[in-house]
Amino acid sequence: VLILCGLIASGKSTFAEALQQHFPLFRRCNQDDLGDRRRVEQLARDTLAQGQSACIDRTNFNAAQRSYWIEIANEFPQIAIWVIVFDTPYEVCAERLRTRQNHPTITSVELGLDVLSRFSADFEQPYPNEGYHRIIRLKPEETFVTYSRSDVAAILRKVQYS
């Protein structure tokens, strides 16, 4: 289970989409697409039951949010739990929201900036005692608008050896 964490517009979905495209063993589990967390939980369980890897593409802004995915992973023996924190500054996320188009749930710049403000105030960095096995933090310069297979593979290796 790969848990993505970060503010809205930090680059999580861009990475998750590229991960699924270049490494089809990973299935992107995204609340914006599915509508609510329970559907994402079901997709994650189904994915793991099929022997695939789940990439949880949500903000996962605090330990309570991340605990759902850790508990699901622990339902399956031998599942590694990795975390990637998209450590994108608030200002960069705000600028991305100003130019974002066609998002399934953020339908205006104003709404996006409001959600960013609320989530930013509540965001908690992951702590080692949460139950995951590996973690990395990606700065904006370590992320891409378009990821090649080798870009994604390099990030996965970075997590694997963290």
From TrEMBL:
Molecular function GO labels: ATP-dependent polydeoxyribonucleotide 5'-hydroxyl-kinase activity; double-stranded DNA binding; polynucleotide 3'-phosphatase activity
Signal peptide extent: none
TM region(s), chain numbering: none
Top-level taxon: Eukaryota
SUPFAM superfamilies: P-loop containing nucleoside triphosphate hydrolases
GO annotation terms (biological process): DNA repair
Protein name listed in UniProt: AAA domain-containing protein
